[in-house]
Design goal:
It is a single chain. This protein is of the alpha+beta class and 404 residues long. It has three domains: 3-101, 3-Layer(aba) Sandwich (Rossmann fold), CATH 3.40.50.20; 129-191, ATP-grasp fold, A domain (Dna Ligase, domain 1, 2-Layer Sandwich), CATH 3.30.1490; 195-403, D-amino Acid Aminotransferase, Chain A, domain 1. It is 34% helix and 28% strand. An eight-stranded antiparallel beta sheet has the order 13-12-9-10-11-14-18-17, sandwiched between helices. It is globular, with a radius of gyration of 22 Å.
Length: 404
């Protein structure tokens, strides 16, 4: 029975779901390394081993925990996690202890977005022009050469955190003057790609890209970040093998080969420019957020989280035929203060009842979320992609979250 370790900073709802999925696989002895106490494992205690650390992003603490568990339960077959910020540390511990999995170089390729773009461009893959600036002068020079708008982000960001757009030189200088870039803490600047934004997900097993999916964002994530009141949606179409996606399918597979993906799920952000060409924004070596994992599960009527765990542990991935398109509408508060009321839920239930497969309604009296996912969401599915597209638009135009 293989002994495997799942690592996560905290046992959030998503992380706990992943632990459950791995623990439910037959013939697996599972342990968890986390900063949370054992009580967070709830009903899984007795079935899942636990080791608590103070800082899981500290390689020494992570290695200490893994070595301690190995002394008790035997050689470690796999060490993995889903949190993007821990991937390099996991790779370093795997290398130290001789555990199979993504290597340190590949982990850096996915984590360091400037390094990633340099590798992709060197391989002839389409991606946004960029500059890793360690001084204000370097940032200004990039903006002068490439024009505005410019996207500014940390080189090791995740989920569009701390990402923003600047539209002129005065704004760029003002933004970077507050926290000037240095060699130790550079800033990543990218050309602002105008067009439709999408995601592309790929499951890779032993270097073979065995399955893919994609979504359409309405509007782009950056627009959502810049406008906290905007309710937004994403749609996972039923049709992902049409000729209209030939270019991104080919580019995504080549990009994963260049970056060093061997086994795991990846989440790529990409654009379709107004002239029809594509541009890769960045790639993460982890399951996607923004309910995309749920959408993929509903589209195929299977548990993607458990199949991801199976792939990570046993190198196997089984997916049934895609039966549905699926979409998620994200609900965000309008105004200031706590959530005072939620309007339009009954109307949406009457209009879309049979299409709705999952929902989280914003809680009256609660503080509004600072997450781009907002205060609640509604997930719908139907065999016809156009029906799903209309349904998510109905949700975001009907439900209003009032703050006050």
């Amino acid at each position: 029975m293989p002994f495997v370790i799942f690592a996560a900073p905290i046992l959030s709802d998503n992380a706990f779901r992943m632990v459950e999925a791995a623990a439910a696989l037959p013939d697996v002895q599972l342990a968890v390394i986390t900063q949370d106490g054992e009580d967070r494992l709830l009903g899984l205690r007795g079935h899942v081993r636990h080791w608590q650390v103070a800082d899981i992003l500290d390689v020494e603490q992570l290695a200490w925990a893994a070595e301690g568990l190995a002394r008790q339960f035997g050689p470690i077959h796999r060490l993995f996690g889903a949190f993007e910020q821990i991937q390099v540390q996991l790779a370093e511990v795997r290398a130290r202890l001789g555990i199979e999995g993504m290597g340190v170089e590949a982990a850096h390729n996915f984590r360091d977005k400037a390094r990633m773009k340099t590798l992709l461009r060197a391989a002839g893959l389409p991606c946004a022009r960029h500059c890793l600036a360690s001084t204000l002068d370097e940032a200004v020079a990039f903006a002068e050469a490439n024009g505005f708008p410019v996207v500014v982000k940390p080189p090791a960001g995740a989920g569009a955190i701390a990402t923003f757009r600047v539209d002129n030189m005065q704004s760029l200088i003002a933004a970077l003057s507050r926290t000037p870039p240095t060699a130790e803490h550079p800033v990543l600047l990218e050309e602002f790609v105008q067009g439709e934004e999408h995601s592309f997900e790929t499951m890779t097993v032993n270097g073979e890209h065995v399955w893919h999916s994609l979504t359409h964002y309405y509007p782009t994530p950056l627009t959502v970040l810049e406008n906290p009141w905007i309710q937004w949606s994403l749609v996972l179409p039923r049709e992902v093998d049409g000729t209209q996606y030939d270019d991104i399918r080919s580019a995504a597979r080549r990009a994963l080969d260049v970056l060093g993906m061997r086994t795991g799920i990846s989440h790529m952000e990409w654009f379709r420019r107004r002239d029809g060409t594509i541009a890769i924004s960045e790639v993460a070596a982890r399951p996607p957020g923004a309910q995309i994992t749920q959408l993929m599960s509903y589209a195929h009527d299977f548990d993607l989280v458990q199949e991801w765990a199976r792939a990570m542990i046993f190198g196997e991935f089984h997916v049934p035929e895609r039966k549905y398109a699926a979409g998620a509408a994200f609900l965000r508060g309008q105004g200031q203060g706590r959530i005072a009321a939620v309007h339009g839920v009954d109307e949406v239930n009457r209009a879309l009842g049979p299409l709705i497969v999952a929902a989280r309604t914003p809680q009256v009296g609660g503080q509004p979320s600072v997450s781009y996912e907002g205060d609640g969401w509604v997930i719908v599915r139907h065999p016809d992609t156009a029906v799903v597209q209309r349904a998510v638009l109905t949700v975001i135009s009907t439900i209003k979250v009032e703050l006050g």
